[in-house]
């Protein structure tokens, strides 16, 4: 009797068996190595059923799962673990799987406060993170806020980044509820900028704050008024002696012409 492969065992179902309409061009020399990397979709789907996960677009998602497993040289079970960890509302999200794979370790000079924020963002789901913030403000999570979390995840943002977006949003507005319009604006910006980690999100906030301070300083220094410079208590007359003498000479010439005209 053929035994079912255990979790993590070599994969055993070929792509053409999953989608008969697709043809695979495999040379004899490639066939042996290909068998080692085939994807055991049957066991993958068994775990999906056990954990209540679903495909949003089965054919497209399975093709991407095959590609990920092949690129990373993963077993079907290793691929499933990432799929489960990045699922959105019980749906497999290959977009978030790709974002997680693309994460790069970062080392930066973070303050103790920033390190605490990063640690909390990494250790909680957005729902848990939001619930804790709402609790401090005597509020409960609304249905529209739940939908907001789903929308941000659908952009491909990972949980730790979504948590930073939530924190930034609550710091922006003194309210018990999320400013959903502002949160989505930030989320779209982070998705576009490929912000994949809490560290990158914190650095992005730091950069924006620094730029805001510089812009404010520039705006203040460039403000012009109609008040003459000499009215400023700190004004110093920087007129050179040579310029002063030239002005005095012109003044004397003007007085002389006036006197001649008066004769």
UniProtKB/TrEMBL annotation:
Enumerate composition-biased segments (Basic and acidic residues): 208-218
Give a yes or no for keyword Nucleotidyltransferase in this entry.
Answer: no
> In what ranges is there compositional bias, type Polar residues?
219-238
Keywords attached to this Swiss-Prot or TrEMBL record, sorted alphabetically, are: ATP-binding, Helicase, Hydrolase, Nucleotide-binding
The segments labelled Disordered in the record are 208-247
Q: Which residues form the DnaB/C C-terminal domain?
A: 132-202
Q: Does the keyword Nucleotide-binding apply?
A: yes
GO MF annotation terms: helicase activity
**Which protein family is named in the record?**
Belongs to the DnaB/DnaD family.
Task: From the Swiss-Prot or TrEMBL record, give the protein name.
Answer: Helicase loader DnaB
- Species: Streptococcus oralis
């Amino acid at each position: 009797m053929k035994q079912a492969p255990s979790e993590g065992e070599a994969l055993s179902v070929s792509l053409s068996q999953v989608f008969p309409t697709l043809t695979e061009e495999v040379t004899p020399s490639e066939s042996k190595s290909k068998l080692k990397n085939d994807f055991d979709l049957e066991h993958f789907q068994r775990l999906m059923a056990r954990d209540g996960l679903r495909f949003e677009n089965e054919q497209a998602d399975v093709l991407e799962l095959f590609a990920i497993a092949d690129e990373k040289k993963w077993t079907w079970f290793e691929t499933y673990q990432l799929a489960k960890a990045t699922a959105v509302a019980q749906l497999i999200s290959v977009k978030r799987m790709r974002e997680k794979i693309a994460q790069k370790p970062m080392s930066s000079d973070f303050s103790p406060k920033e390190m605490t924020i990063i640690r909390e963002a990494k250790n909680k789901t957005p729902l848990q993170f939001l619930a804790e913030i709402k609790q401090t403000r005597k509020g409960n999570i609304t249905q529209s806020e739940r939908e907001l979390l789903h929308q941000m995840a659908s952009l491909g943002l990972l949980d730790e980044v979504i948590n930073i977006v939530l924190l930034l949003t609550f710091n922006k507005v003194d309210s018990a509820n999320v400013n959903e319009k502002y949160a989505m604006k930030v989320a779209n910006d982070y998705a576009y900028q490929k912000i994949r980690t809490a560290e990158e999100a914190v650095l992005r906030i730091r950069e924006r704050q620094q730029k805001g301070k510089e812009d404010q300083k520039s705006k203040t220094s460039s403000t012009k008024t109609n008040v003459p410079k000499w009215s400023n208590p700190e004004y110093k007359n920087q007129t050179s002696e040579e310029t002063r003498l030239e002005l005095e000479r012109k003044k004397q010439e003007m007085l002389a012409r006036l006197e001649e005209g008066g004769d």
